[in-house]
Amino acid sequence: MNLFAEPDDHAIGRSRGGLSTKIHALVDGKGRPLVLLVAPGQGGDAPMFPHLIDHLKINRAGPGRPRTRPDRVRGDKAYSSRAIRSLLRGRWIAAVIPEPADQIGHRKRRGSVGGRPPLFDKEDYKGRNVVERNFNTFKQWRGLATRYDKLALTYRGGAVLRAVSIWLAALGDTP
Question: Is residue 60 part of a domain?
Fold first, then answer.
């Protein structure tokens, strides 16, 4: 299981509120982190998605290459872009991402040239709350919630340490 991605020493960004960072994560169906990346806080979520997918590697129990392709990706409306959908389609990964109202309007305005609406499974999308619960688990650590670290490397180290503690609780025999 690959919990680590390449560190970026310049991932603390400056915005109107001061220095800030974001944790971008891929989690499994039980909310355990698989990939963690730290990025500047003023950056968007969608530009980080290809980097998250590129870092996904899950070792198999037996022989064979690590698995790099999940069955499906559940994301919120921030990940609804043509680039992300084509990236997922190119890897044969099902996208469970709702289409924002503005994209629906643009597609309908273009008529038949706008194409068909993307497939969306409302029942499957209900499982996306696992990601939000994972971030709430990360925010239980005061250092990650308050973002006091001045270096992205130390902030990322705290995030990775929290991810390790989540996996230890899941794999260990004690609660």
Answer: yes
